[in-house]
## 1
Amino acid sequence: KHIVVIAGDGIGQEVTTVGKQVLDRIAEKFGHEFTYDEALIGHAAIEATGNPLPEETITKSKQSDAILFGAVGHPKYDNDPSAKVRPEQGLLGIRKALGLYANLRPIKLFDELLQASSIKPEFLQGADILFFRELTGDVYFGEKGRKDEGDTAYDQMIYSRYEVERIAVKAFEAAMTRRKKLCSVDKANVLESSRLWREVVQEVAKRYPEVEVEHQFIDAAAMLLIKDPRRFDVVVTGNLFGDILTDEASQIAGSMGMLASASIGDTTGLYEPIHGSAHDITGKGVANPLASVLSAALMLDISFGMKAEAEAVVNAVDQVLKAGFRTRDIADATTPAHLILGTGEMG
Amino acid sequence: KHIVVIAGDGIGQEVTTVGKQVLDRIAEKFGHEFTYDEALIGHAAIEATGNPLPEETITKSKQSDAILFGAVGHPKYDNDPSAKVRPEQGLLGIRKALGLYANLRPIKLFDELLQASSIKPEFLQGADILFFRELTGDVYFGEKGRKDEGDTAYDQMIYSRYEVERIAVKAFEAAMTRRKKLCSVDKANVLESSRLWREVVQEVAKRYPEVEVEHQFIDAAAMLLIKDPRRFDVVVTGNLFGDILTDEASQIAGSMGMLASASIGDTTGLYEPIHGSAHDITGKGVANPLASVLSAALMLDISFGMKAEAEAVVNAVDQVLKAGFRTRDIADATTPAHLILGTGEMG
Ligand SMILES: CC(C)[C@H](C(=O)O)[C@@H](O)C(=O)O
Ligand SMILES: CC(C)[C@H](C(=O)O)[C@@H](O)C(=O)O
């Protein structure tokens, strides 16, 4: 299998280095051959080429069997809202160019981290949610611009039937292999695009009569996710609402540093931690690499169909946590100092 | 003072009845005269007149000194995304008609409810956030519609400089009277409207050099709100992001049933619980009326400048909780059955 590593910005480098090491170890143990290439994106690509998504990155990605992705972003652009070229254009661009319309974000708590969250353990125990976030539509990709001499700015939130249908189908299929519950999240009491979303999900639901379906408004969903995380099984939602809910849901898993995601479409899949570039800790060697490691596990499972290999990785993470090892973000007041590891050691 | 009560749908009736009783008691104790009128909105108004916001409701509202609002919404419309006339149009319409551009949502935990939340008490103790949600712009009011024979639906997310500026000024003014910290929430790494938002907040910030300002992306903010609620003082954000964050923040206060809001602009203010119509418990007499009671307190404070009166109401709520009384939503396993009260008794 040929894998392109796109490390990107901030802690992206540090964590994908570990993700790749884990893939190498799997190849060794299970007798596979993984070859690698690297490609630029984001701020790193802007610095090197002026373009947040060089053509070469797309070509390499298309020719690969899977992509191990780091993160994009840089505070420089965040503080300058008028910047025309931005790192995030690289990430949005590659999602679109590869047609990665379904972003799977599994939220599952490792038992050992039950205490790491600000949420009470009795509300978390057993929580297991699989988010399907639509990834190539919505207000992310609608027409955007300025008018009135720059004094008015707009972004179009937009969905078409086929876009909603294909992600809904993926979510229902997943629900069939799980607890057969699906929650669709929208804001249909206010938004026309959400009303289309709800219509289409209702239609697709008819094809899956065994799945128990509920529709929640995004505001209620953001509340229920904290109030009672265990009520959710599969959650399907649009690009923007999915961005918000999955970051929020990281608190269910104890830390954002533990959460992996898979972006899939009709071809090459992209595997990426849900945490961002985290410039505040970049270069310090303290970033939690487990989200990248678990992203590699998702790659093994989803893109390569290597179930046993994926399981071996997840078990390894479980065992390292059971042995008491922590990175800083998942340590608590009771963690002995010698069990708090840096990025490389955790790898 | 002349007050219009717009009870609306679901539990709106039950809770505003209690809110009004409290206002009456205040008038009696402090020697004020409050006169009342009623007006229709939402599903109730559709049933009676065909219109979710009858002209008469606007006229009465404009002539009043303040509005005590209940809730709007009905499951009938939620299940039928194609309905053309909807209860929520009443609420959005009155916000727009009265120019209620600033929605203040204070999130403060009553000590007695520290255990009622799914969040650990040590993360909540002392949390005190004041949200400023912009209320008459954004994707709520941008152009919306269908194209491609109904197969594509869109809503325009849109902000103009003056809209951002006036809400930012309100938020900074409030921060000056509090802990002098302000967090502005947007998605400036993706959205043009958010970039304008950030630009304008940065400009307004220059006029308030004493206020410590941070900018967070909505996804990070949704996470941080649960991870560390005490880091926030004043939060200012757009209509959609404010809708989501304040519902989520209800978990900080133990229950949505405790949260009041004030919608203000240049004229009459509207006071409203942040909970919705809650049809699942409508008519059962179990709804928590305290959000309506606390909304009445905000009215006394903000619209009538009656500080002592407002404080008396908040103290009364505090005392009733200290005495152990609870409605169902804020009771827990340790609450003795005889202390669990219905809506009227709690009033
Ligand atoms: C970096 C940003 C553009 C991105 C998004 O909003 O999609 C990130 O938050 C994510 O969730 O992958
Ligand atoms: C009922 C609905 C239109 C409303 C909104 O989204 O503004 C409600 O959720 C609120 O927060 O007041």
## 2
Amino acid sequence: MPNRQFVLASRPTGMVEESHFRMIESPIPSPAEGEFLVRSLYLSVDPYMRGRMNAGRSYATPVEIGGLMGGGGVGEVIESKHPGYRPGDVAVLQTGWQQYAISNGKGARKVDPSAAPITTALGVLGMTGLTAYFGLLEICGVKPGETVVVSGAAGAVGSVVGQIAKLKGCRTVGIAGGAKKTEFIQKECGFDAALDYKASTDYTADLAVLCPDRVDVYFDNTGGPISDAVFAHLNFFSRVAICGQIAHYNDAHPPMGPRLLRYVLVNRTKVQGFIVSDHQDRHAAALVQLTQWFKEGKIRCREDVVEGFENMPRALMGLFTGENIGKRVVKVG
Amino acid sequence: MPNRQFVLASRPTGMVEESHFRMIESPIPSPAEGEFLVRSLYLSVDPYMRGRMNAGRSYATPVEIGGLMGGGGVGEVIESKHPGYRPGDVAVLQTGWQQYAISNGKGARKVDPSAAPITTALGVLGMTGLTAYFGLLEICGVKPGETVVVSGAAGAVGSVVGQIAKLKGCRTVGIAGGAKKTEFIQKECGFDAALDYKASTDYTADLAVLCPDRVDVYFDNTGGPISDAVFAHLNFFSRVAICGQIAHYNDAHPPMGPRLLRYVLVNRTKVQGFIVSDHQDRHAAALVQLTQWFKEGKIRCREDVVEGFENMPRALMGLFTGENIGKRVVKVG
């Protein structure tokens, strides 16, 4: 049986399409001393992957043409020459887009299938949950009573941001596209209010109503005209975490928009970009807290499971058209 | 003899003009118990004053139509019913745009004419020097060896930012308009390199040459296309202090430009707006340090003195066309 893999066929200049990927087959690798072999069970698709398909300077090296698409996954250890992993163990690691992956244990951790569904290791109890946690608590430093606005609020990160903000005593306003999503974030994630940007004809006016005390914290996953409107409602000494700019990942040309720095000046706002791996030394402690909240039912998660390894490209593409509610994963085997 | 004052005649919608001000005469006021009367010697003109002429929300209350234009000044105490001030004392305080001002001492401090020229109390040893100090050291947290870029580098704030950055062991690149200014910042302020934006046909390409290790700290006084180019060269974990956006203070419509948040995300940049009065509790300590540097000749200052109270409006207007090198003050008496 071969190892099916997706490699980058060509670099997109605008919207990513299936033709930018190519599925290849290679032999299943054997672990060397100190390594283990994993069979992928679920693979993650995340918006940041679009950035890695570009050649430009970024925080991570771009995927080479013909190179394996990178990404996280959970899988079952099927062979091991590593002292910490045994066959039958479930692990979360950087698998890449493939059915079988070798690891030396670096960046990997074991997952306890009896504690929570193993898919959560890719979501609320994994990279996206940690992103929500550090972005809201470290970058924004939320305080009780503050108004927190979240764009991409029905997504994997945004839906967790809203719930942590509620746990911290904030008023939460989520921005999402469509009635299903705004219902989800209010009923399942406990957002106090929601703005359906697909139904709104004036984001700025609608936000004025939803945020009568202005916006103390803005957790931005999207950028674009939604962010423009939120910036116009920032409060004095507000904080903005730039987690994602999904509205622009598929832009063919550098996007233009209203200049926002005047809002930053007048309000003495702090705007800060971040990525979760910058906080890696504290991931373990944060996962303890997130797991506790999850077990206590204080944080819920919705997962959007796409069936079939062959659907990896389309699963990723769907993130940019807003198909998913909650964390999207691909079920491989 | 009357007290001549400038009041706001009307709100500008674009570039400020003389017609937006009106000079009036009123009786010289008498100090009540606990107050003192000052005769203005030098009045400050600063870009922030343009913002106060607008009705919009900002960190300070707008000037009312018919209201006295606000601002700082240094003057001589000529009558006092305040225990801390005696006739003959020189003080710096919020005089407003007038020849005589009453103060209860709040926000005022005495100036020692034997220590430094009294005009410095409006500049390097006053509001603009403190702005440079807190913006660079607190907001940006510069470290030795970092590349610091300053826009408006020949201005009252920017010229001091560059000198403090050099004292802290940074490499300094100043952006200013015209050969006189770029010569000033390099020869008098010790900037390592300068970009003359009036002579440049490609800010981005020129900055790439001037900042081969990218930009760790950007102290922004201007905004506009200069800032766009600097953002494109930001380094990982860079810091940007938004001190001013003088390029836009006279815009009639909200300005458009390239979206900058993607640079903030990729570099995990911190962008923060600030105003000097937010740090008021530490002004005294900072002034001790600035005064020491000044006395030791480690920080030099250039002042641009406009003669005559009647020229206050034109002195302010000139800030927006880049007339001044260093701190502009108006000599009143």
